[in-house]
Inverse folding.
């Protein structure tokens, strides 16, 4: 409802409020340049996945599937593609890496976020970041020339059993703690039905992992063979060192996101620092800590150079279920196959097997990363 | 444990405010004989080399509500946090002078701040329930102190005292974060009460609440003061006038030559006197709205 009788002494025209033509073209050019930049990365990823799928498909349709199971060894140039060999080696290396990186990374995170004063933090955090910046080839060399003879080489039968028992008990204690809260929720009926299913599933998973790890430890102990050259254990410890900063920094971020008001509330109720950390900060940051562990697992499975150098196997390996033996992980299998001047030669599907393993690896890390990002977004929701 | 359980001693000196900038002329003795919980003497608080508050001296009577008022940046919260050694949590913070709690120096090197905080509870400006169930929030303090049995009773009694029981008794296992702001703050009061303290420090407990929730908390303070000594920092002068028995007025001493602000205590007196006939001109200017 414009009152037409109103006079505007300083009348504005549309022209005066228009964008200058030259400026308008510049904006358009900027816009499309940025769109192209974004599209290129999407395009490249799509092409990579496409080529991965195409060659992997050739393998999947061409391979004799009976030969991928029970051959007890990965000899791609001879047409023996025993997938359990490389998957089990990857699991062993990842497991050892997490046993090293989990407690150390989480401990560092708790120290940094709850205990360290500003002065200590100002040098400790950068030091951790430097550790993250060490090229994995350097760590691989270190694992082969130092960790293998000086740490793994000193592990005897008894030491292995003691270490295994300590780790299993630690794992059992942590899972019992986690399970207790879940069971409590379950019994009180506070959790919604889907959460109940999740609780049951996660408890079952914790138990299954415990039983499997226990049986495996016992088995390794029974058939124990010392080894001070390259081994899955040496590679696993090396990968663990590599993932410490990852666990530490993501967990620390999650703990730092817990508001100080909760720490003050806890302190005000007469809680000591460790109680505040374990009863308030860790539960509040649990999603981020779980995410840190998943990202670390994904990184450990995908790590190549350390396992390639220190894993104690060249381009082929017999099935190994003991960390003291040399073995070939999925990544090391790919790297060893693709390296060398003769490129990839061998029996018909050797070249394609590389893509198949790559696809397997890609799917594993992709699903782990999706799960991790869900946990991370859950952290953001909470505060 | 260096703190004794002996009865609070009676003192026979007037509750006085001092400090170099505050001669407090003609201040009438507040009372000659009454139970005192805290006595502070020349308390200064430093953050690094910055002196945030200086030379605060006053007594806190037992089973009363004492309000700390004053303009922003005058250090009232800082002073409050000295009484349960909350400033210990801040890096670089340092407290000088002495504060005694029931006759024992709170800052004696043998005193464990954790023990202090179990006796002197605190409610914060923003409601800060833990992301746990209502029950677990209230049971947190007793559990931390090692108690395992009788938690149900403690939770119920604390929630009743905090006037929250009727509203939440059918959903104790729900997350505390689902409560309204006012309910959350009463939950925080219940949580503080559950530890069984004898003093409650409240740092602007109503500043994040609407007037109805504020009124509930003020009523609650009146109800529980027979069991607890309460110190409350408030920005709201009407609130101080409504709820408190004694009032301490703080202001900021601005030094223009080096541009620093230091909190100082101007005067302490009965609330009625502070708001009707204060001894100090600065107090009068503040309470009548001419300054601050």
């Amino acid at each position: 409802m414009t009152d037409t009788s109103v006079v505007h002494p300083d009348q504005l025209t549309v022209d005066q409020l228009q964008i200058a033509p030259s400026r308008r073209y510049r904006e358009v050019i900027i816009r499309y340049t940025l769109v192209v930049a974004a599209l290129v990365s999407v395009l490249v990823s799509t092409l990579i996945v496409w080529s991965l799928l195409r060659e992997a498909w050739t393998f999947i349709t061409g391979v004799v599937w009976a030969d991928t199971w029970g051959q007890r060894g990965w000899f791609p140039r001879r047409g023996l593609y025993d997938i359990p060999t490389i998957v089990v080696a990857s699991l062993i290396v990842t497991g050892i890496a997490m046993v090293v990186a989990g407690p150390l990374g989480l401990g560092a995170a708790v120290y940094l976020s709850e205990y360290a004063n500003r002065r200590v933090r100002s040098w400790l955090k950068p030091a951790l970041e430097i550790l993250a910046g060490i090229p994995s080839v350097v760590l691989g060399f270190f694992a082969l020339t130092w960790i293998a003879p000086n740490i793994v080489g000193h592990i005897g039968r008894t030491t292995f059993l003691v270490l295994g028992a300590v780790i299993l008990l630690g794992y059992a204690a942590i899972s019992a703690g986690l399970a207790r809260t879940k069971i409590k929720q379950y019994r009180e009926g506070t959790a919604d039905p889907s959460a109940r299913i999740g609780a049951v599933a996660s408890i079952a998973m914790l138990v299954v992992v415990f039983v499997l790890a226990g049986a495996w430890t016992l088995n390794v102990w029974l058939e124990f063979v010392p080894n001070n050259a390259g081994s899955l254990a040496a590679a696993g410890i090396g990968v663990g060192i590599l993932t410490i900063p990852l666990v530490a920094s993501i967990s620390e971020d999650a703990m730092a996101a817990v508001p100080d008001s909760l720490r003050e509330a806890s302190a005000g109720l007469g809680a000591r620092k460790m109680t505040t950390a374990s009863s308030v900060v860790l539960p509040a940051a649990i999603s981020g800590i779980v995410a840190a562990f998943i990202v670390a697992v994904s990184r450990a499975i995908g790590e190549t150079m350390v396992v390639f150098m220190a894993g104690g196997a060249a381009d082929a390996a017999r099935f190994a279920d003991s960390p003291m033996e040399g073995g070939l992980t999925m990544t090391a299998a790919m790297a060893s196959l693709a390296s060398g001047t003769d490129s990839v030669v061998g029996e018909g599907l050797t070249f394609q097997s590389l893509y198949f393993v790559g696809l397997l690896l890609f799917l594993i890390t992709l699903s782990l990363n999706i799960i991790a990002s869900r946990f991370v977004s859950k952290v953001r929701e909470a505060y | 444990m260096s703190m004794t359980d002996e009865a609070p001693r009676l003192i026979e000196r007037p509750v006085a405010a001092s400090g170099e900038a505050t001669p407090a002329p003609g201040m009438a003795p507040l009372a000659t004989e009454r139970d005192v919980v805290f006595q502070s003497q020349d308390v200064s608080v430093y953050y690094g080399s910055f002196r945030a508050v200086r030379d605060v001296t006053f007594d806190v009577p037992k089973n009363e509500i004492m309000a700390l008022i004053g303009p922003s940046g005058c250090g009232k919260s800082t002073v409050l946090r000295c009484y349960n050694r909350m400033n210990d949590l801040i890096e670089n913070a340092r407290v000088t002078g002495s504060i005694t709690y029931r006759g024992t120096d709170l800052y004696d090197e043998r005193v464990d701040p954790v023990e202090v905080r179990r006796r002197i509870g605190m409610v914060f400006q923003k409601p800060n329930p833990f992301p746990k169930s209502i029950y677990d929030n209230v049971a947190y303090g007793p559990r931390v102190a090692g108690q395992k049995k009788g938690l149900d009773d403690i939770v119920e009694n604390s929630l009743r005292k905090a006037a929250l029981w009727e509203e939440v008794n059918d959903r104790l296992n729900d997350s505390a974060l689902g409560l309204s702001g006012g309910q959350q703050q009463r939950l925080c009061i219940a949580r503080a009460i559950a530890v069984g303290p004898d003093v409650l420090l409240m740092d602007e407990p109503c500043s994040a609440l609407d007037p109805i929730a504020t009124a509930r908390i003020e009523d609650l303070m009146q109800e529980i003061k027979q069991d607890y000594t309460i110190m409350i920092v408030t920005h709201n002068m009407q609130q101080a006038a409504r709820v408190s028995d004694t009032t301490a007025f703080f202001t900021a001493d601005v030094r223009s030559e080096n541009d620093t602000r230091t909190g100082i205590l101007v005067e302490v007196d009965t609330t009625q006197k502070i708001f009707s006939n204060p001894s100090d001109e600065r107090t009068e200017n503040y309470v009548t709205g001419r300054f601050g």
The mean pLDDT of chain A is 87. Residues 14-62 of chain A form one domain.
